Amino acid sequence: PLRVAVVCSSNQNRSMEAHNILSKRGFSVRSFGTGTHVKLPGPAPDKPNVYDFKTTYDQMYNDLLRKDKELYTQNGILHMLDRNKRIKPRPERFQNCKDLFDLILTCEERVYDQVVEDLNSREQETCQPVHVVNVDIQDNHEEATLGAFLICELCQCIQHTEDMENEIDELLQEFEEKSGRTFLHTVCFY
Protein backbone atom coordinates (compact mmCIF):
# COMPACT_ATOMS: atom_id res chain seq x y z
CA PRO A 1 0.00 0.00 0.00
CA LEU A 2 1.00 3.56 -0.75
CA ARG A 3 2.43 5.41 2.26
CA VAL A 4 1.12 8.96 2.00
CA ALA A 5 1.88 12.16 3.90
CA VAL A 6 -0.08 15.40 3.51
CA VAL A 7 1.62 18.59 4.61
CA CYS A 8 0.47 22.19 5.10
CA SER A 9 1.77 24.94 7.34
CA SER A 10 0.04 24.32 10.68
CA ASN A 11 -1.42 20.79 10.31
CA GLN A 12 -4.91 22.17 10.97
CA ASN A 13 -7.07 22.77 7.94
CA ARG A 14 -5.80 21.61 4.54
CA SER A 15 -3.61 18.66 5.61
CA MET A 16 -6.19 17.49 8.16
CA GLU A 17 -9.10 17.63 5.72
CA ALA A 18 -7.09 15.49 3.30
CA HIS A 19 -5.94 13.20 6.15
CA ASN A 20 -9.58 12.72 7.11
CA ILE A 21 -10.77 11.86 3.60
CA LEU A 22 -7.77 9.64 2.75
CA SER A 23 -8.03 7.64 5.96
CA LYS A 24 -11.77 7.11 5.36
CA ARG A 25 -10.82 5.73 1.94
CA GLY A 26 -8.42 3.25 3.53
CA PHE A 27 -5.09 4.93 2.77
CA SER A 28 -2.08 4.67 5.06
CA VAL A 29 -1.80 8.42 5.70
CA ARG A 30 -0.18 10.85 8.11
CA SER A 31 -0.37 14.63 8.16
CA PHE A 32 2.03 17.35 9.16
CA GLY A 33 2.79 21.06 9.28
CA THR A 34 6.13 22.70 8.42
CA GLY A 35 5.74 25.94 10.39
CA THR A 36 7.72 26.80 13.50
CA HIS A 37 4.42 27.32 15.32
CA VAL A 38 0.78 26.44 14.80
CA LYS A 39 -1.22 29.51 13.81
CA LEU A 40 -5.00 29.82 13.89
CA PRO A 41 -7.06 32.90 12.96
CA GLY A 42 -7.61 35.30 15.85
CA PRO A 43 -9.89 38.27 16.50
CA ALA A 44 -7.99 40.31 13.86
CA PRO A 45 -5.71 39.43 10.92
CA ASP A 46 -2.66 40.70 12.83
CA LYS A 47 -3.64 38.83 16.01
CA PRO A 48 -3.50 35.11 15.25
CA ASN A 49 -3.66 32.48 17.97
CA VAL A 50 -0.21 30.95 18.11
CA TYR A 51 0.50 27.56 19.66
CA ASP A 52 3.40 25.20 20.03
CA PHE A 53 3.28 21.93 18.03
CA LYS A 54 3.14 20.11 21.40
CA THR A 55 -0.27 21.63 22.15
CA THR A 56 -3.12 19.17 21.64
CA TYR A 57 -6.13 19.99 19.47
CA ASP A 58 -8.22 19.60 22.62
CA GLN A 59 -6.19 22.24 24.48
CA MET A 60 -6.52 24.65 21.53
CA TYR A 61 -10.25 23.97 21.40
CA ASN A 62 -10.70 24.76 25.08
CA ASP A 63 -8.49 27.83 24.88
CA LEU A 64 -10.53 29.33 22.01
CA LEU A 65 -13.80 28.31 23.64
CA ARG A 66 -12.72 30.32 26.68
CA LYS A 67 -11.47 33.30 24.64
CA ASP A 68 -14.53 33.82 22.42
CA LYS A 69 -16.95 30.97 21.86
CA GLU A 70 -19.13 32.93 19.44
CA LEU A 71 -16.32 34.12 17.16
CA TYR A 72 -14.64 30.72 16.89
CA THR A 73 -17.92 28.90 16.39
CA GLN A 74 -18.96 31.32 13.67
CA ASN A 75 -15.64 31.17 11.76
CA GLY A 76 -15.59 27.36 11.89
CA ILE A 77 -12.37 27.00 13.90
CA LEU A 78 -13.99 25.09 16.79
CA HIS A 79 -15.66 22.72 14.33
CA MET A 80 -12.31 22.14 12.62
CA LEU A 81 -10.50 21.46 15.91
CA ASP A 82 -13.27 19.10 16.94
CA ARG A 83 -12.74 17.12 13.72
CA ASN A 84 -8.95 17.20 14.17
CA LYS A 85 -8.99 15.76 17.68
CA ARG A 86 -11.00 12.78 16.43
CA ILE A 87 -8.20 12.01 13.94
CA LYS A 88 -5.13 12.41 16.17
CA PRO A 89 -4.19 14.11 19.46
CA ARG A 90 -2.03 16.99 18.22
CA PRO A 91 -0.46 18.60 15.17
CA GLU A 92 2.87 17.16 14.04
CA ARG A 93 5.84 18.91 12.49
CA PHE A 94 7.17 17.33 9.29
CA GLN A 95 10.80 18.16 10.10
CA ASN A 96 10.57 16.02 13.27
CA CYS A 97 9.28 12.90 11.51
CA LYS A 98 11.74 10.30 10.34
CA ASP A 99 9.21 7.86 8.85
CA LEU A 100 9.48 6.97 5.16
CA PHE A 101 6.74 7.77 2.65
CA ASP A 102 6.16 6.93 -1.01
CA LEU A 103 4.24 10.10 -1.72
CA ILE A 104 4.23 13.45 0.07
CA LEU A 105 1.56 15.98 -0.94
CA THR A 106 2.01 19.61 0.02
CA CYS A 107 -0.71 22.27 -0.05
CA GLU A 108 1.25 25.36 -1.08
CA GLU A 109 4.55 26.17 -2.77
CA ARG A 110 6.26 27.51 0.35
CA VAL A 111 5.49 24.26 2.20
CA TYR A 112 6.69 22.24 -0.81
CA ASP A 113 10.01 24.11 -0.72
CA GLN A 114 10.37 23.48 3.03
CA VAL A 115 9.63 19.74 2.63
CA VAL A 116 12.08 19.34 -0.29
CA GLU A 117 14.75 21.33 1.57
CA ASP A 118 14.29 19.19 4.67
CA LEU A 119 14.44 15.90 2.73
CA ASN A 120 17.54 17.03 0.82
CA SER A 121 19.31 18.04 4.03
CA ARG A 122 18.90 14.57 5.56
CA GLU A 123 21.58 11.96 5.23
CA GLN A 124 20.65 9.51 2.48
CA GLU A 125 20.37 6.05 3.96
CA THR A 126 18.19 3.78 1.84
CA CYS A 127 18.15 5.64 -1.50
CA GLN A 128 14.43 4.90 -1.56
CA PRO A 129 12.60 7.46 -3.72
CA VAL A 130 9.80 9.64 -2.40
CA HIS A 131 7.65 11.73 -4.73
CA VAL A 132 6.83 15.21 -3.48
CA VAL A 133 3.86 16.80 -5.23
CA ASN A 134 2.44 20.24 -4.55
CA VAL A 135 -1.27 20.90 -4.99
CA ASP A 136 -2.02 24.57 -4.37
CA ILE A 137 -4.95 24.86 -1.97
CA GLN A 138 -6.18 28.14 -0.50
CA ASP A 139 -6.35 28.07 3.26
CA ASN A 140 -10.11 28.19 3.86
CA HIS A 141 -12.65 25.49 4.70
CA GLU A 142 -14.27 25.27 1.28
CA GLU A 143 -11.00 25.08 -0.69
CA ALA A 144 -9.59 22.58 1.81
CA THR A 145 -12.52 20.25 1.12
CA LEU A 146 -12.22 20.59 -2.66
CA GLY A 147 -8.44 20.16 -2.43
CA ALA A 148 -8.80 17.07 -0.25
CA PHE A 149 -11.03 15.36 -2.82
CA LEU A 150 -8.53 16.23 -5.57
CA ILE A 151 -5.67 14.81 -3.46
CA CYS A 152 -7.72 11.69 -2.77
CA GLU A 153 -8.47 11.17 -6.46
CA LEU A 154 -4.79 11.64 -7.26
CA CYS A 155 -3.75 9.09 -4.62
CA GLN A 156 -6.29 6.59 -5.92
CA CYS A 157 -4.93 6.95 -9.47
CA ILE A 158 -1.32 6.64 -8.30
CA GLN A 159 -2.18 3.56 -6.25
CA HIS A 160 -3.65 1.92 -9.34
CA THR A 161 -0.54 2.46 -11.47
CA GLU A 162 1.58 -0.55 -12.32
CA ASP A 163 4.76 1.45 -12.14
CA MET A 164 4.54 4.69 -10.17
CA GLU A 165 8.09 5.81 -11.06
CA ASN A 166 7.38 5.80 -14.79
CA GLU A 167 3.72 6.76 -14.82
CA ILE A 168 3.47 9.59 -12.29
CA ASP A 169 4.56 12.40 -14.65
CA GLU A 170 1.94 11.49 -17.22
CA LEU A 171 -0.66 11.09 -14.50
CA LEU A 172 0.09 14.53 -13.06
CA GLN A 173 -0.16 16.05 -16.52
CA GLU A 174 -3.63 14.55 -16.96
CA PHE A 175 -4.63 15.92 -13.57
CA GLU A 176 -3.34 19.37 -14.47
CA GLU A 177 -5.44 19.41 -17.62
CA LYS A 178 -8.50 18.10 -15.84
CA SER A 179 -8.31 20.36 -12.78
CA GLY A 180 -6.84 23.50 -14.34
CA ARG A 181 -4.17 23.55 -11.60
CA THR A 182 -0.43 23.14 -11.93
CA PHE A 183 1.37 20.61 -9.77
CA LEU A 184 5.00 20.90 -8.79
CA HIS A 185 6.70 17.50 -8.63
CA THR A 186 10.12 16.31 -7.62
CA VAL A 187 11.74 13.10 -6.42
CA CYS A 188 13.85 13.02 -3.26
CA PHE A 189 15.64 10.04 -1.72
CA TYR A 190 15.78 8.73 1.82
TrEMBL record:
The keyword Amino-acid biosynthesis does not apply. It is an enzyme of class 3 (hydrolase). It is found in: Nucleus. Keywords: Hydrolase, mRNA processing, Nucleus, Protein phosphatase. Its EC number is 3.1.3.16. One of its GO terms (cellular component) is nucleoplasm. Protein phosphatase that catalyzes the dephosphorylation of the C-terminal domain of RNA polymerase II. Plays a role in RNA processing and termination. Belongs to the SSU72 phosphatase family. This is RNA polymerase II subunit A C-terminal domain phosphatase SSU72. It comes from Pan paniscus (Pygmy chimpanzee).
